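ZP: hey, is the zinc ion complex queued? I don't see it on the tracker
AM: it wasn't, my bad. submitting now with these inputs:
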Amino acid sequence: MYEGIVQDLIDEFGRLPGIGPKSAQRIAFHILQTESFDVSKLAELLTVVREKVKFCEICGNISEQNLCSVCRDPRRNPALICVVEEPKDVVAIERTREFRGFYHVLGGAISPIDGVGPDDLNIRRLMQRLADGTVTEVIIATDPNLEGEATATYLSRLLLPMGIRITRLASGLPVGGDLEYADEVTLGRAFEGRTVVSG
Ligand SMILES: [Zn+2]
């Protein structure tokens, strides 16, 4: 334990996802000891990002405007919606250049252990988007792990009665992993080879 504010800083970094006590300490001391480290720039960015970045009103992706850049793009195919867990998955799929439809970001996955149920996810808005019949295919691209599978199963059951074609990414993605860690080629192939979910 360090004295006062140094420990406060370490504790604060330790609250961030994926940062354990050792990393938190390393980051804190890096900031304290590196003269060239621009503290005011980081502080300003943190403030501005909170003020400016919001969630797209249509798809839930992050955006600096009411609608994200994907939803503002008129050249995309309105018949296709790809459902993902997080905004970072949108970035991963965009990198493959395989998909020219729209997205829907759930904001997580169903995980009873973490207390996350369907009502905690951005599912109601998805149902609204599907109501007018424009969308003919929903591609479920949740992560290839337990929570992602549970979410995909839940969504399939919910959407199949609506008569929309439901597809899932082909296997070949590293199981137990995170969509964003799949390389572009693998993720692109998984998209091309997506399979239809039947009831
Ligand atoms: Zn959007």
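AM: back. The mean pLDDT is 91.
ZP: great, adding it to the tracker
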